[in-house]
């Protein structure tokens, strides 16, 4: 790894792959850093070494990643696997841990394409072993060919839930139930956007197909589920829920939940980029324009990292960010940039038509987002409950940073990745404010684990 | 909790999970092999000692912290298995 690259791209998912290929094709020396062992991101994870049978289970959308990865591989991109970026600052200096060795590198342009994480939504029992994110289930399937052995309950909202249920069905897994927590009122909220959304019907038809297949297979599907609970001592044994005012319980050793995804913002925050609360998507995201440019010169964001848009949009995002970076470095004029980006800009226009519908449709119920019961754990690391937080709010400590100071909420190893949004939403609800007006946790590097020894080794490196 | 779709992987390594020697496919994460081995919890929490297990599998929850070759606080979902690796549950802070 060199100490300087004109362009550094973080994340080898669809956005990062498209950006790297585009920039390399234009003769820009580009480093693509990714923390996984192989390119593809979460969505196309393990695409290069996927056994055929498993690939078929995953469906045609997954196979799309193959070409993206091939194009990047055959370009001149300097691709680094097992490379995690633990710091980034406004001077475009990056701290990178590559195969156990720490490096400090410098860039003229940085594109952050680190993707999304699952939206953490607390509910009783969500910390029990046997309760996992649906995304985790998908990673186990893609990377290791692991599927639930003794049945599974899927619960939450959003397209991934149906997709995973469908993939499991194809793999012969006993899908005990799909519990959809979307309130019926989402239909009302989403309806006004439907006519425009129909223009981008590819999203909708896929979902309908999964639903039809699940129904034909006799999988129990419940809509408008409330009061989701994972029950158990050492691990989950049952899932309780209320449907149409009746309490139900399903025995299961595994509950996979999904409540949509949110941008991973730790790196852009460490770099002091401005962030805004996005009400439609109920999460923070870096403030960015159509090219993904943030308020910090030279740093842009692309793909789900810039705001949730899904894998296809991420490719276009990545190209737009690359064209702009190439322009910023003086290799093409503004006019050339706009001309090259025409197709991608058109896609983004369509995306703006469909996204409000999806956002409104799959929004988790506000009761789960804003007012967890006192016993619910918000901070998984430090085991801080909603009740603990309410107590310090009553004492007058009413910002996330103050709550953190007084309860240790957000101070554990995950650095607030699992509680930042729920704490902000709880504070907003309890104090009658809008999350928009709440200052999130401050984030300090290292944003990824690195040992003192590795840091010390880095100094030696740069002296050499 | 989990089973493998395909058996006979081409490349394997030997690891030790909680003292038991297990042959596992090369290239997998420590968290995946622990789950496939049936390790229901992989750590206990620092505050209340409650059991936890991998939750996100993508490096953002830190609930998969385990002891690898005697060193605590290793992120099991982000670390690949290696020949001879000793994987143990982490109890509390692990010190
Ligand atoms: S399982 Fe979440 S960080 Fe490893």
From TrEMBL, chain A:
GO terms for molecular function: oxidoreductase activity. Residues 6-316 form the FAD/NAD(P)-binding domain. SUPFAM superfamilies: FAD/NAD(P)-binding domain. The keyword Transmembrane does not apply. InterPro entries: BFD-like_2Fe2S-bd_dom_sf (IPR041854), FAD/NAD-bd_sf (IPR036188), FAD/NAD-binding_dom (IPR023753), Metab_Enz_Cyan_OpOx_G3PDH (IPR051691), Opine_Oxase_asu/HCN_bsu (IPR017224), SoxA_A3 (IPR041117). Keywords: Oxidoreductase. Pfam families: Pyr_redox_2 (PF07992), SO_alpha_A3 (PF17806). Residues 382-457 form the SoxA A3 domain. The keyword Cell wall biogenesis/degradation does not apply. This is FAD/NAD(P)-binding oxidoreductase. The lineage of its organism: Bacteria, Pseudomonadati, Pseudomonadota, Gammaproteobacteria, sulfur-oxidizing symbionts.
Automatic annotation (TrEMBL), chain B:
InterPro entries: 2Fe-2S-bd_N, 2Fe-2S_ferredoxin-like_sf, 2Fe-2S_ferredoxin-type. Coiled coil: none annotated. Pfam families: Fer2_4. Gene3D superfamilies: 2Fe-2S iron-sulphur cluster binding domain, sarcosine oxidase, alpha subunit, N-terminal domain. SUPFAM superfamilies: 2Fe-2S ferredoxin-like (SSF54292). The keyword Oxidoreductase applies. Keywords: Oxidoreductase. GO terms for molecular function: iron-sulfur cluster binding; oxidoreductase activity. This is Sarcosine oxidase subunit alpha.
């Amino acid at each position: 790894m060199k100490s300087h690259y004109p362009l550094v791209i973080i994340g080898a998912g669809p956005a990062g792959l498209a950006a790297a290929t585009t920039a390399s094709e234009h003769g820009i020396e580009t480093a693509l850093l990714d923390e996984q062992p192989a390119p593809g991101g979460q969505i196309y994870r393990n695409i290069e070494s996927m056994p055929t049978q498993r690939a078929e289970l995953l469906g045609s959308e997954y196979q799309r990643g193959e070409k993206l990865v091939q194009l990047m591989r055959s370009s001149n991109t300097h691709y680094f696997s097992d490379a995690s970026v633990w710091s980034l600052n406004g001077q475009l200096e990056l701290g990178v841990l590559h195969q156990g060795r720490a490096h400090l590198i410098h860039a003229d342009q940085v594109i952050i394409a680190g993707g999304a994480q699952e939206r953490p939504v607390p509910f009783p029992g969500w910390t029990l072993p046997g309760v996992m994110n649906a995304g985790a289930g998908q990673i186990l399937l893609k990377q290791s060919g692991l599927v639930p052995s003794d049945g599974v309950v899927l619960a939450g909202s959003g397209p991934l839930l149906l997709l995973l249920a469908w993939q499991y069905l194809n793999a012969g897994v006993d899908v005990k139930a799909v519990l959809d927590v979307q309130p019926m009122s989402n239909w009302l909220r989403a309806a006004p956007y439907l006519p425009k959304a129909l223009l981008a019907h590819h999203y909708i038809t896929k979902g309908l197909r999964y639903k039809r297949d699940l129904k034909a297979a006799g999988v129990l599907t419940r809509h408008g589920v409330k009061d989701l609970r994972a029950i158990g001592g050492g691990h989950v044994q049952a899932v309780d829920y209320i449907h149409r005012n009746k309490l139900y319980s399903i025995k299961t050793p595994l509950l996979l939940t999904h409540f949509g995804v949110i941008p991973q913002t730790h790196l852009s925050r460490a770099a002091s980029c401005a962030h805004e609360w996005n009400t439609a998507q109920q999460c923070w995201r870096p403030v960015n324009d159509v090219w993904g440019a943030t308020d910090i010169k030279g740093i842009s964001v692309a793909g789900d990292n810039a705001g949730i848009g899904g894998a296809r949009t991420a490719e276009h995002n990545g190209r737009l960010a690359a064209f702009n970076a190439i322009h910023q470095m003086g290799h093409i004029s503004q006019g050339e940039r706009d001309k090259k980006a025409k197709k991608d800009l058109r896609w983004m226009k369509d995306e703006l038509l469909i996204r409000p519908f999806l956002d409104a449709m799959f929004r988790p119920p506000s009761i789960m987002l804003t007012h967890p019961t006192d016993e619910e754990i918000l901070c998984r690391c430090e085991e801080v409950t909603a009740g603990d937080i309410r107590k310090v709010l009553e004492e007058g400590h009413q910002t996330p940073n103050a709550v953190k100071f007084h309860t240790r909420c957000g101070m554990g190893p995950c650095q607030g990745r699992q509680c930042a949004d729920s704490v902000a939403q709880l504070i907003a609800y309890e104090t009658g404010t809008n999350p928009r007006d709440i200052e999130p946790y401050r984030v300090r590097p290292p944003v990824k684990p690195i040992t003192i020894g590795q840091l010390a080794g880095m100094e030696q490196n740069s002296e050499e | 909790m989990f089973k493998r779709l395909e058996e006979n992987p081409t490349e394997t390594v030997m690891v030790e999970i909680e003292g038991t020697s297990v042959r596992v496919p090369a290239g997998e994460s420590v968290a995946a092999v622990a789950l496939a081995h049936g390790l229901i919890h992989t750590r206990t929490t620092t505050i209340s000692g409650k059991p936890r297990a991998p939750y996100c599998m993508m490096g953002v929850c830190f609930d998969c912290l385990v002891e690898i070759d005697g060193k605590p606080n290793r992120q099991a979902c982000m670390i690949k298995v290696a020949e001879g690796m000793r994987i143990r549950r982490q109890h509390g802070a692990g010190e």
